[in-house]
Amino acid sequence: MSREGCAVSGGEVAGLLVAVFWAILVSFLALALVRLAQVLRAASALVEQITEQAVPLLADASETVRSAHTQLARVDAIAADVQEVTANASALSTTVSSAFGGPLVKVAAFGYGVRRALGRPRTPGVPDMTPASPVIPARTVPAARRGGLGTRRRKG
Length: 156
Hints:
Layout: H1 3-6, H2 10-118, H3 143-146
């Protein structure tokens, strides 16, 4: 065999290098596709598990929302009743105040005026610090038994 038959030209070497490069590239791409397939299987399994758990949770949440809506309707009814009772109490208070407030103030003023009229005359500018002496019909109470501020005996 001659050397000429085994000799490889530069174009053949370049073609061989390109073929090896493409084989390595295809191997890396195949490996990447295998990993991608594993990730997609895992993601599909995860989505399936989430779906299995989410459907009952959504049903429970829906039932809870319905129950809350029912309870809110009840609370609205109670709040309306409380508002009506408050309005009625306010109206009753206004009515009682207007019906009895004026006469009670007049009676209190009259009683105060009567007490002041029956009390001892006051000296202008001097506050009245002595208590009124108790009045018992047909009987005199000694000063020592009266009590109050004016019960001190004077020496002298």
